[in-house]
Structures are given as C-alpha cells and as structure tokens.
Amino acid sequence: MAKAVEIKNLRKEYGAKVAVNNISFAVEEDTLFALLGVNGAGKTTTIKMLTGLASPTSGDAIVLGHSIVKEKDKVKEIVNLSPQETSIAPNLTVRENLEFMAGIYGMDKEKIARRTQEMIEMFSLAEVEKCRAKTLSGGWQRKVSIAMALITEPKLLFLDEPTLGLDVLARRELWAVIKRLKTEVTVVLTTHYMEEVEALADAVAIMVNGEVKAIGTIDELLAQTGKQNLEEAFVEIAANA
Amino acid sequence: MKGIIFCKRTMKEILRDPLSYIFCLAFPLVMLVIMSVVNESIPKQANMTVFQIRNLAPGIAYFGLTFIMLFICIQVSKDRSTALIMRLHASPMKSKDFILGYTLSVIVLALLQLLITFAASFATAVAVGTKLPVTGVLLSIVCLLPSAIMFISVGMIFGTLIGEKAAPGICSIIITVVGMVGGVWMDVDNMKGVILSVSRVFPFYHGVKLARLALAGEYAEMGQPLLVVCAWMLGLYLLAIAVMNGKLKKDTY
To answer: Inter-chain contact A83–B253, Cβ cutoff 8 Å?
Structure first.
C-alpha cells in the first residue's frame, strides 16, 4: 500500500526542551492512523510539523510525496487540519465559515457552492447552517471545524484531539462522522482516549515523552504486550518507556 | 484573491459586533451634536473657532478614525488568540494576504465612517445657519485617507504585539493623546508654547490641520502637513508589515 506520510528522524526542540525526539514511522494511504499519548507526549507538535505550522529542528517527513522542509507550501495545499481548540470564525454563520475556507484554498464560486452543500449534507448541518458559529454547542462547533477542514478536498486530514471536551453523545456522533471520513481521505488523528482509538483506528503509534514507543494495529500491540485491552497495553508500554 | 476573501470575513466579523456601530458611527455623531451645542454656548468675544462646524467636522472625522484603529487592533489580537488563526497559518495563505485583508476591511469601514460623519456635519451646518463647501468636504475626505491607513497600521502593530485584553487599554491611551495634541478639542495653534511644540512632533496635529485646510479650500497651505502625514503613514505601514511578518514567522516556527 502507498505511503501517505513517511517520517524520518523528525525532531523538534523548543529551547532546551525536546518536544519530539527523532521519531520515524509511516502512515499508509486510505487508513485512519492514531497518535496516542498523554498530554505533552508530542502528538500536537508532530502534527504541527506535518502541516507546516512548525519547522523541524532536524529530520524530515514526506507528505504525499512532498518534503515538509523543502516543499512546505505544496504540502499546505494538499493537507488540512482541524486543530485541538475549536477553530471557527465566531461571527460568521456555519455556511459562511465553510465558504470562507473553500475560498481561501482557491476554489471558484461554483465549486464553493457545491462543496459547501456537500459538507452541509455530509455533516448534517442543515438545521444550523444559518446560525452564527459562536452560538453553537461544542459538539456542533467541532463538526463544523472538521467540515471546514474537509471542504478543501485534502488528500490527508489531521484531526488534533477531535473529541476533547465533548460529552459522550457528542463524542459518539463525531466518531460516526470520522468513520465515514475514512472512505474519503487518509486521516491522522491524535487522542488520549483509548476507546477512541479502539473505535476508529486502523493503526496506532504510542508516543511517550516525544518518542514513539510502539506502533502497529491494536491486535499487534495487544500481542506485543500480552494484555487484554488497549488501556492495559498502553500503560505497560508507557511504564516501560 | 485570498486577501480579498480574508477581508470579507474580517468585515463581517467587525460589522456583526454591535460595539462597532456604537464606537465607529454613533460616537462621532453624538460628539458632533454635543460640541455644536457647546459652540452655540460660547460667547463670540471668546473668538474660539475650534468648535465651529467648519473646524469641528474635520476634527471629529479625524478623531473617529482612532476608533477604526481600536477595532482592527482588537480584531487582530482576538484572531491571534483563537485556533482559527492556526488553521489559516496551515492554509496556503501568506502574510501579505493577512495584511491586505485586515487593511482593506477597515479602509472600507473608515470611508463609510467619514461619509456618515460629513453627511451629519452638513445637516448640523444647516441647523446652525451655515454651509459646508461640497468640494472642500470631498477633498477633506481624500486627505483623511492617509491618516486612516496610518491608524490602521498602528492598530495592526498593537494587535500583533499585545493581547486581546491589553489592546483596548493601549488604544485608549492613543485616542486620548490624539484628542489632546491633535487639536481636535482645543486650539493648540493659539495655545502656542510647549503644547504646540509637542503637537507638531506627532502626526495627529498635521492630520487634523490638513483635513481642515482641505475643507476650507486653503490649498497653498496643505503641502507641509500632507508631506508629514504621508511620511508617517508610509513609515507606520511598513512597520506594521514588518511586525506582522515577523510575528507570523515566529508563530509558525
């Protein structure tokens, strides 16, 4: 299977602190890959480097055939991101937010209208499309945020802690949306929820203190640690790190 | 094109905030009415001309631009505090798109504010039994545009450098300084001395003087203040570009 992302000895330092320490792994196309780790493990920093938001201190990653070091602008055109915090224009309506993002990525009027309608249908946003984004609940805002990332037709979508802070119902609803995304685009998702990884991921990398400590399918990680569930496997891997 | 799309979004964000109407439109109009009433109460022997409508209208129009500065400052700092800006940094948008978008969005707002302020000034002039020259008013609006860009630059600089909570405070200081040394509320030319010397150091006095000269049709006098205003505009706009470029690079590092 073709590789969507190939990370080679990627490292990020902030002063004396090493946020990401020479990580290397690959993400296959048309899969949902999860980066699992506790807060401060280096998941968000990794995503920031892969989306061109942060420059690596050393190393490189090839994203859909383009280097994040040498071809950052090209990478920005073909990937998109739904950040950890809700990232919407608060005084714009849901429809305007979607149109705004499509416009930023250079779509013409006709395509903007078509893609906006597609996103409204895909994410069931019709009932709130005329509401200003700031008036929506956290769950709705997160759906709009992901729709804003997907409207630009990215070949690779990064979801940074997509269900953080959501109640159980909103989380389950968003999982259903993310599962549908797997059929359209390669997804890299960061989370610290074990059940989220179990519900969604085809493959998972466990990050601890800026390093990848284990990588594989959930079954492979369970077999590797001899544990019965992902949480126990994670604790085992993190404890031995 | 991305700059234009960002401009439309920024305009919507500002125009959908009710405070924009209070500060950008209502406040200058209220001041116009109040100061016109004050002018009517001042004895003619006092020879105080600063509140006469031909001086008051360009002064208030200039003063109103300081609120444009406040709004762009708050908008930039607010954007920086949200994850939306992270999403935009991850998009193909360049720093020139951000700068163009912010500038155009409030230039339109500034022009609208100037037109409304002068339209209200026409009505006030009629009410107090005088007239404002149409050509002078139009030229005065044109002469206020470099000052508008200058205030937008200041707003972008502070919005980039300081946080959302500190932005209104810093801008309030500048607004007070403009009112004091710009000659909007007092006749600094007649006060002479230190106050006039201090006023001449800042661009505000020259900006107000330029707008008043344009309205009065005293074209021969306009060269020097026009030069000063344009120099400040250019310098501060270039500084705004440098500051925003630097911050964007730092934020994305």
So the answer is: no
Contacts of A132 in chain B (CB under 8 A): 16
Domain count, chain A: 1
Helix, strand, coil proportions of chain B in percent (round to 5)? 85, 0, 15
Q: What are the backbone dihedrals phi and psi of residue A212, each rounded to the nearest 5 degrees, phi first?
A: -85, 115
Which among A54, A87, A132 has the least Cβ separation from residue B87? A87
- Most confidently modeled range among A228-237, B42-51, B226-235: B226-235
Q: Which A residues 140-169 touch B at CB under 8 Å?
A: 148-149, 152
Output the pLDDT for position B252: 58
Structural domain of residue B11, as residue ranges? Answer: 2-251
Give the sheet arrangement for strand A32-36, strand by strand. A79-82, A156-160, A186-191, A32-36, A203-208, A211-216
Report d(CA A158, CA B83) in Å as an integer: 14
CB contact under 8 A, A91 and B12: yes
Which residues in chain B are contacts of A148 at CB distance < 8 A?
87
User: b/e string for A23-41 if b means 16 or more Cβ within 10 A?
Assistant: bebbbeeebbbbbbbeeeb
pLDDT of residue A163: 86
CATH number at residue A216: 3.40.50.300
Asked if A116 is an interface residue toward chain B (Cβ–Cβ < 8 A), one would say no
- Show the domain range for A78: 3-239
pLDDT digits (tens, 9 = 90+) for A3-23: 899 999 999 999 889 999 999
Read off the pLDDT of each residue in B106-114 and give the average, rounded to a whole number.
Answer: 92
ipTM: 0.87
How far is the alpha carbon of A205 from chain B, nearest alpha carbon, in Å?
23
Rounded average pLDDT over B219-236: 95
Of B1, B13, B17, the CB nearest to A89: B13
Q: Is the pLDDT of residue B248 over 80?
A: no
Looking at the partner chain, which of A77, A83, A90 has a beta carbon nearest the beta carbon of B92?
Answer: A77
pLDDT tens-digit readout, B181-193: 888 888 888 777 8
Q: Across residues A88-102, what is the average pLDDT? A: 95
Q: Is A74 on the interface with B (CB under 8 A)?
A: no
**Count of domains for chain B:** 1
